[in-house]
Amino acid sequence: MKPLLQLPGVRPLALACAGLALLTGALVLTQWALVARMVDSMFLGGLRPAALTSVFLGLAGVWLARSALVGVRDVAAARAAARVKRELRERLFEQLLNLGPGYASGQQAGELAEVVVEGAERLEGFVGRFVPGAAFAAALPPLLAVAVLWLDPLSGVILVFTGPLIVVLLWLVGSLADSAAKAQWWTLGRLSAGFVDTLRGLPTLVVFGRDRERLAALRATDDTYRRVTLGVLRTAFLSGFVLEFGATLSTALVAVTVGVRLFEGHLPFERALLVLLLTPEYFAPLRALGADHHASLEARAAAARLFAVLGERTPGQGTLPVPAGPLCIELRDVTLRYGERTALAGLSLMLRPGSRTLLVGESGAGKTSVVRLLLGFASPTAGSVWIGGVPLGDLDPAAWRERVAYVPERPYLFPGTVRENLRLGRPGATEEELVAAARAADAHAFITALPQGYDTDVGADAARLSGGERLRLALARAFLRDAEVLILDEPTAHLDAGSEERIRAALERLRAGRTVLMVSHRAALHGGYGQTVELVEGHVRHPVVEPR
């Protein structure tokens, strides 16, 4: 609950709603006092309705003012909820970008998407409903209880004792619903993640004849979600029954005591009627809070996961500018752990300006961890990374990455045109620069052969392109970036001989005049590097200096 109250705009909204509740309370007292006066004047005083025209007009004005205050509350709550959802999604997107691919690769994509989209959406139940409802329930009933105590102390005592009792019952039922709401959210995340994973691996599942088995697993998760949701609804219905029963019983108790004293002549009719009219108004905010409390439980369950993501420790987020001029990159006695697993242990490595370094090792040796460190996607557990004499953690990460071009083993191309994917390297590039980069990467010929040339849509994950074409577009993107540091992660690992030859020629052009780090499984496939560093289980086995 406390993190939710610290969301931007929640406390001002609660204070504003409390003020509106006090104004609404004054209007409620005025409204029913006018009604009681009219009924008493017409049925006991014998006045005609025409003689009460001013009272009718006053009652209409009070009713309109009360409706306007409720409308103002709802509009303010809706705007606050929209703002909270927008700002929280922005924070989540920024946090996921800062955490980098190292964090995302360890999560389920479907579940993360559920957190960002549906998780933020469920906060509307807390901000847009529970906060205004709680403010009205905290301010309006005490005001009305004081008024009833002044009008009829016995009825006021009944309200003072039964109102808090209903709140306690609501809290007890809500405690039961809290665990059910968390189970519902967790199951929904599993279902979303399973569905996305099934879509991604559908070809493999079909080929191996496991599609129906996977479908059965999804059905089982869906059935679990159905049962958990029904459990949440049962608890919500129980909460509603408790509130309705308690409020009805208390109202009936007030009505009986008032009616007996009215019959005995101990209570004037107008006052007795006013007490009876105010009693349902006393319980109305508490009854509404029951439904709002159910919405807040869903928000709390989603918020637990949201704030868990926001609370993850991000790699260095410094603010210093990157030093000008050629950069010397150095890893000094770096250790990197992922939980209990040690990926790098005491690694020291220097990349001098304009040098070419080959980093080799078997799978799991720590090569990818070195790349993540250099890109700022991970922070050393021990040791440090230095860029131009400045710790990488102190540098502005966006400014540092502008000085780096990265070509991964399997480059990702976003749904969109070829031109849009190339301009990821430099959004402000001109058409001439775009074409020049494509020619340098040996990609211009196949791009112009596509149906719409540079305006051809590559499809989801570039499904319409071959592996070699996809890689050449990634190289063109790196050419367009024109960065002084180039990191290549096994770019020719999955290519045929013809494609590999073209890619090697493009890589040779790209490496000219840049500091290059090539990651590979085998040193025998490469030549022309100033130093070769072999990693074995996170340790440097030995550096080998080769002629250029």
TrEMBL record:
**Name of the gene encoding the protein in the UniProt record:** cydD
- Report the subcellular localization: Cell membrane
Superkingdom assignment: Bacteria
Looking at the keywords, is Nucleotide-binding present? yes
Ranges where the ABC transmembrane type-1 domain occurs:
15-290
Keywords, A to Z, come to: ATP-binding, Membrane, Nucleotide-binding, Transmembrane, Transmembrane helix
Could you tell me which residue ranges the ABC transporter domain spans? 329-548
Instruction: Give the source species.
Output: Deinococcus navajonensis
Question: What is the designated name of this protein?
Answer: Thiol reductant ABC exporter subunit CydD
Entry membrane topology: Multi-pass membrane protein
Membrane-spanning parts:
12-34, 46-65, 130-151, 157-177, 236-263
Signal peptide start and end residues = none
One Pfam family here: ABC_tran
